[in-house]
Write a structure and sequence with these properties.
mainly alpha, about 160 residues, single chain, binds zinc ion, globular
């Protein structure tokens, strides 16, 4: 009985039809990457060089588009009110997003009902289709206002 067999050689894996994970890049994955990059640019352009959580505007800072609900939560990954400019190392990295200050900032900026909407949305599963991702990318390429409108419309019908 062979319980612990040796790992399969590359040739054997290929023969079985499974390829190393790295090779598998789905078209959907590429669209997500593109949307991530364009969306981060939009957020940083919208907010400028002011950190959502500490309010500082240090020179030469490495700015991040910092998520309140982490970016792995797909229902909020590209939500304009879940992501803001954040100083890269102090707040986004060392303070892990500084979430207490982040919550306060969201309430001050948009009101408590917006924080509640985000919290409720965070609990939902959202699967993005290719046409949806393409639509968001196209909207971002046109500009921020177009993106906000397209996003809000898709949220209403989701
Ligand atoms: Zn900061």
């Amino acid at each position: 009985l062979l319980l612990r067999s040796k790992p399969l050689s590359r040739k054997a894996r290929l023969a079985r039809g499974s390829r190393p994970r790295r090779v598998r890049r789905s078209p959907l994955g590429r669209l997500r990457n593109k949307l991530d990059a364009l969306f981060a640019l939009y957020v940083k352009d919208r907010d400028g060089a002011v950190c959502i959580t500490c309010g500082s505007r240090p020179e030469g800072q490495n700015w991040h588009a910092g998520h309140f609900f982490r970016r792995g939560i797909m229902s909020l990954r590209w939500d304009p009110k879940n992501v803001h400019s954040q100083c890269g190392i102090p707040c986004n990295k060392f303070r892990r997003g500084a979430l207490a200050e982040y919550a306060t900032a969201i309430v001050e900026r948009y009101g408590p009902e917006e924080l509640a909407r985000l919290a409720s949305r965070a609990k939902t599963i959202r699967k993005w289709t290719r046409p949806e991702l393409e639509r968001l990318i196209a909207a971002l390429e046109q500009g921020g206002a177009e993106y906000e409108m397209a996003y809000a419309e898709m949220e209403r019908s989701a």
